[in-house]
Structures are given as C-alpha cells and as structure tokens.
C-alpha cells in the first residue's frame, strides 16, 4: 500500500491534472491512495468568500463566481463532452455552498470557515477522479469526512484515532485506486472540520498509519526537501536524507515542506516519507526515515513572517516566576496564540507568537492589567538548524535583532 499526496500547486490547472495522471502511469498506481488538496489558490479565494460573507455581502456572489469560473475552465480543458456528469456534480457542490451560506445561523467564524473552505478539496478530487476514469485509470472517490473523525476544534481539529482507525479499516477497499481529500474531517455531529492549513500532508499520514502503508510520497513543485525556502533564501540545496527527528524539528520550527503533525504517525510505524518533484517523478527526491543522518550536513534555514513579539516586565520590579508564567501561558492558550519562542529573565518575559485567530488586541488588553507590555508586530522569526557563524551573519545583516536564542544545534533570531 502506498499513499500519494498532491498539493494545490500540482493541480492548479488542466495541465497539472494531466501531469498527475502521467505521474501515476510512470510510478504505478496499484494498491494506491491519492490525497489531493484544493486546486491552485482556491483555499485563499474561499477565505475571501468568507470575508465577504461576514463583512461585504454585496461582493459575496462575485467571489463565489470567481471560484466557479476557475474550475469551469479546468473542466472545459479536460472534458470534451460538456454533458459529462462531472459538470453537474461540480454545479451541485456550488449549490450546496450557496445553500449553507444562505441558511447558516452561526456567527462563529471558525465554524463557518470549516463548513466553507472544504468545498475546494471536494471539487478538486471530483474533477480528478472523473478525469482519471475517462482516460482509463479506474478509481474510487472517497469522502474523507466519512472516515477521518475529529473533535470540534474548528480550523485545527484533533483526530479521534480510535474512530478513524475503525472507519478506515472497515470501509477502505485496497483492491482499487482510491482518491480522497486532504485537510478535512468531520466531528461527532458530522459537521466538516479542518486539520489546519497544509493539513493535506497530515491526511496522507493518517491514512498511511491506519492502513499500515509501505510509504508516503508528497509530490511538490520542488525536487524534495530543501535546506531553505527558495522564495526567501538564495542557493537553496536539496537534502537527500533526513531522520524523523530532524524532520520533526524542522517542521516544528516552521519548515513549510512538511506539515508539523505529519511525521509523528509515520514515525510510530516507521513508514518512510518521500518528498519528490511532480515535474521529475523518477528522481530520488528526499527520503525521511529511521536511523538516517542529515545528508548533506549543512545549515537549514527557516523563516516565519508576520509574527508578533510581546515583551512583558513586572510593574513593581518583582520577579517573574512560576505563578506569573503560568498566568501568561493560560492567557496565551485562552486567546489561541501559537508560541514559537520564549525567553525570560528575573523581571522580564518575551514571547514570539503567531496571531492565527486575530485575538492579539484582547490578549494585550488582558496582559496590561498586570504587566508593562511592549509589542512589536510584523516581525520575522528566523531559525537555523546546524548553524555556523556565516549562516548567522547571513540572516542578521541589515536587520534589527530584537531577540536571539541559541542552543547546541539551533539558533532563533527575531528581527524587525
């Protein structure tokens, strides 16, 4: 059993869908599950739909039509027969989306987000499944929401592993090529949930774990895992091999190639993960596995933009000790702040956070009741694994360093 995951960039247009089919034909697709993301930047446009739904109803239908037009062009490019059933299937998804937005009574943005954005994955997998069928690659389309069960922590749901294992084991047919959606699940009330942005990788790992897969392959528009994001760093190099531990470290610090949650279930069953280029599917790419050292051993750079650095100091010069720190972390949890770096001294405490849920102002208001607060917005957090003096100089040159923290293998630097 092998699991393939294709991201949005790999199926951004009709040529991408045709290339996915070519990858399957080159690599083989016997006893295979394909996990697919929404096409191109669909999730971003779905988020615009949500923005219009809550704040600009006049533009709501035009933003939905933009998504419909994008997918309709892909359909026209792939299917010669405009009476093919796939056109009706896709139209019904948009009817369902509009129906939900008209009848929804919940003011909870996170709930509405999860009921809305997942249509991108449902549509993309339906188009791909139908296209593969007409070119002779017979497959079975699965609604992932019937198999991956979660809690109702919308936008970052936690998997109910017992229920998920039972459902996948009971329902999955290994005798055919299967295709399903990444990123999605459902809660106990069968409302759609999402696993966090880039959660399609995690979906692939969930299925691999439950099905005891031989391997997982993530197909990307890069040759494999690089030591840096080429959008921000020059001369990025391919990493041929990485251990689970190293990959988990890189993912934890924000490396965008592998989702942070993806690696744990694979490690537990020692399932190797491959990251390969969908342009060159026969190249080796990167292998992540057990008892593997980083090859080559070079610095690995990670940057997270648009972070927030909050610095606290006591109002009366008293120590910031366990009970103060406990209160701070309770607030960070309450306001759903993702903590990336912490640093404290006797009378000060600094934390770099990702304001995912836009709760920063409420948090700051709460903190100011007890502490002197300084807040730097739109800072960048740089992390270097296996750093060298030259690597540190490379990221600090021309920037104002607000915080620096070193350990034996890792340095983190917050800059303005």
UniProtKB/TrEMBL annotation:
GO molecular function terms listed in the Swiss-Prot or TrEMBL record: aspartate kinase activity
Supply the enzyme class, top level: transferase
Name of a matching Pfam family? AA_kinase
Q: Which domain of life is it from?
A: Bacteria
Query: Which Gene3D superfamilies does the record match to this protein?
Result: 3.30.70.260, Acetylglutamate kinase-like (3.40.1160.10), Aspartokinase, catalytic domain (1.20.120.1320)
Reaction catalysed by this enzyme:
L-aspartate + ATP = 4-phospho-L-aspartate + ADP
The answer, when asked if Ligase is one of the entry's keywords, is: no
Look up the record and name the pathway of this protein: Amino-acid biosynthesis; L-threonine biosynthesis; L-threonine from L-aspartate: step 1/5; Amino-acid biosynthesis; L-methionine biosynthesis via de novo pathway; L-homoserine from L-aspartate: step 1/3; Amino-acid biosynthesis; L-lysine biosynthesis via DAP pathway; (S)-tetrahydrodipicolinate from L-aspartate: step 1/4
- Annotated keywords: Amino-acid biosynthesis, ATP-binding, Kinase, Nucleotide-binding, Transferase
**NCBIfam families found in the cross-reference section:** asp_kinases (TIGR00657)
Member of which family?
Answer: Belongs to the aspartokinase family.
Q: Write down the PANTHER family for this protein, in alphabetical order.
A: ASPARTATE KINASE, ASPARTOKINASE
Query: What is the recorded name of this protein?
Result: Aspartokinase
Species source reads Hwangdonia seohaensis
């Amino acid at each position: 059993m092998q699991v393939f995951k294709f991201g949005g960039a790999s199926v951004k247009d009709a040529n991408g869908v045709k290339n996915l089919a070519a990858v399957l034909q080159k690599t083989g697709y016997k006893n295979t599950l394909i996990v697919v993301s929404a096409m191109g930047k669909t999730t971003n446009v779905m988020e615009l739909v949500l923005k219009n739904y809550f704040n600009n109803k006049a533009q709501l239908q035009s933003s939905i039509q933009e998504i419909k037009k994008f997918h309709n062009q892909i359909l026209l490019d792939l299917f010669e027969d405009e009476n093919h059933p796939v056109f009706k299937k896709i139209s019904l998804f948009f009817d369902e989306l509009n129906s939900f937005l008209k009848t929804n009574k919940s003011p909870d943005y996170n709930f509405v987000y999860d009921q809305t954005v997942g249509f991108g994955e449902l549509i993309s997998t339906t188009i791909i499944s139908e296209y593969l069928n007409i070119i002779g690659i017979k497959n079975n389309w699965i609604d992932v929401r019937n198999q991956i069960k979660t809690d109702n922590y919308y936008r970052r749901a936690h998997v109910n592993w017992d229920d998920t294992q039972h459902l996948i084991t009971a329902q999955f047919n290994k005798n055919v090529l299967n295709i399903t959606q990444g990123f999605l699940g459902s809660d106990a009330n069968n409302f759609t949930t999402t696993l966090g942005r880039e959660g399609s990788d995690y979906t692939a790992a969930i299925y691999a774990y439950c099905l005891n897969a031989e391997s997982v392959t993530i197909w990307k528009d890069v040759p494999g895992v690089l030591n840096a994001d080429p959008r921000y760093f020059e001369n990025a190099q391919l990493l041929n091999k990485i251990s689970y531990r190293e990959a988990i470290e890189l993912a934890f610090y924000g490396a965008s190639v592998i989702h942070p949650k993806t690696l744990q279930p694979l490690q537990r069953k020692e399932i190797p993960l491959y990251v390969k280029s969908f342009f060159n599917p026969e190249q080796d790419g990167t292998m992540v596995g057990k008892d593997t050292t980083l090859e080559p051993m070079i610095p690995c750079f990670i940057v997270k933009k648009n972070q927030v650095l909050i610095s606290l100091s006591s109002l009366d010069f008293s120590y910031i000790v366990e009970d103060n720190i406990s209160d701070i972390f309770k607030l960070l949890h309450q306001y759903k702040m993702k903590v990336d770096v912490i640093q404290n001294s006797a009378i000060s405490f600094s934390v770099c956070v990702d304001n995912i849920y836009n709760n920063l102002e409420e948090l700051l208001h709460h903190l100011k009741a007890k502490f002197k607060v300084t807040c730097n917005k739109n800072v960048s957090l740089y992390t270097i694994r296996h750093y060298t003096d030259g690597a540190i100089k490379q990221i600090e040159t021309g920037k104002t360093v607000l915080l620096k923290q070193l350990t034996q293998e890792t340095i983190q630097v917050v800059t303005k």
